[in-house]
Amino acid sequence: MQVAMKAATPSSRPPSVRLSREKECADNSMVEPMSPTGRIMEEMGVCIVVVIGLATPVNLPVFRAGIETELITRLPRLRSIQVMDESTNNGKPQWVQTAVNVDDHIVVPRLDPDAVASDPEKAVEDYMASLSLLPMDRRRPLWEFHVLDFPASEAASTVVLRLHHSIGDGTSITTLLMASSRSTADPARVPAMPPPPKRTGPIYQREPRPALSSGDYLALLTWFWSHVVLAWNTLVDVTMIVATILFLSDPHTLFTRADGHDSRSGKRFVHRTLSFDDVKLIKTAMNCTINDVLAGVTSAALSQYYFKKSGDTNTKRICLRSLVLVDTRPVSTRQTYVTRVETGNRLSSLICPFNIALQDDPLEYVREAKRFMHRKKSSLEVLFTRVVGEFLVKNFGVKTGAFIFRRFIKRTSIIFSNALGPVEHMTLCGHPVAFMAPSIYGPPQALTVHYHNYGSDIKVVLAVDDTQFPDCHHLLDGFAEAIRIIKNAAALKTLTTSI
Where would I find the O-acyltransferase WSD1 C-terminal domain in this sequence (predicted)? Predict the structure, then answer.
């Protein structure tokens, strides 16, 4: 496949250009320090990719005008470059705003027309796989849109947004797209988001202490015991994190990156549309959260794939672990996402088990997920991971922080994430959006699982090692089969309960 890329040519410049005399004298409002998390993402070379399927062919002048007037005006980092501040001893990187030529950030590749005509989905996949191997031009702001203006099964055309993770996390990029869009049903307003959950604070937040004057000593005892459980779970989780950094790693399975394999090898991105209503049906039947359901579906899909692929008939259960990405922003701010763009990287992580097993009852996958997710809500692991990560970067340098973080996540098997999207279709830069499929590349895992809801659908997006998972579509089929089986079991449970 022939690919001609204008804005994504490799740069011979060093990772960050030096702060020139003119930029040193720039207005302070034009300069922003890079966060510790952003510096780790920079050091590890992690990038975000968002596949956006459009319901119409691309009108390039209209799309370009939308990028210029909507997107880059809302997020200053899209018009900033990374520079090194030589006035400090460590030369810490900063964001410095610069002039942006939008044309430099729009790539219209020339693909093999025969390959596109024979299999457009594979043409998109192959092109995205090539992006994961291609460095970004650091002389410009680290983002670009790639326009693939040909029809595929789910869209009339496709655009791929690629940007460096140091610019922001999934939430900040999602909020940017939401705030820059309009509801397709009502162009006078922005897209609607899901209703807020009951919890509004961090997942580890405890209930306030009851007043002693109420005389409810049972409530006081319950409050005290919840903090004892919080302290114990935190101690256990911190111990597991330290052990993972030092020596503890998952057993070698089909999902583990092969020994000696280059962790920076190409990634293939594949996605499948699932019914969000099916997920909510399971959620209601099991009295759990959307995350619990998706974690259970993932465990079921990986289990089915493992036992079919390996032919293993002796093993009953394999305990693997997943690095679950967590947005540390307050849940109460989610309703402002569509009107106020969140900025930066405010990510943390949890280590959660993913058991590979064949369950007689499909609902047991969700029950197990519910149990370990509930336990993680009574732990300060999220807070600990973020605070320690920032401490390491600030006091020992970004290379030390990135080394420890990479060693930490390399000893787990997969990365798992669930991103919040709108509950209705939207129009972005003058084009109706048919679907969105976000993912990342750069971490050392061979498998990354992302979920993203959009309207009445939810996308499961896999970023897989291109050589380790040549049958990645079979793995993807397992997610659709898993949710079908679990949904049927949940519907039967609901029917049986109601009789």
Answer: 344-487
Stated as kind and residue range, the H or E segment containing 365 is: helix 363-376
- Asked whether the beta carbons of 444 and 406 are under 8 A apart, the reply is yes
- Residue 479 CA to residue 372 CA, distance in Å, equals 20
| Two structure tokens written together for 448 | 């990354």
pLDDT per residue as tens digits for the range 420-479: 888 999 999 999 999 999 999 999 899 999 999 999 999 999 999 988 899 999 999 999
Q: Which of 88, 42, 40, 41 is nearest to 398 (CA)?
A: 40
Query: Which of 115, 77, 117, 111 has its CA nearest to residue 97?
Result: 77
Enumerate the β-bridge partners of residue 106. 145
Instruction: Report the amino acid identity of residue 120.
Output: P
- 399-415 residue pLDDT tens: 999 999 999 999 999 99
Check if 425 is active-site: no
Closest CA to 170 of 412, 423, 436, 355: 436
What b/e string do you get for 4-34 counting C-beta neighbours within 10 Å, with b at 16 or more? ebebbeeeeeeebbebeeebeeeeeeebbeb
d(CA 44, CA 165): 10
How many H-runs (helices) and E-runs (strands) does the chain carry?
Answer: 14, 17
Cβ atoms of residues 127 and 116 within 8 Å:
no
Active-site residue, from 146, 165, 271, 452: 165
Rounded to two decimals, the pTM is 0.89
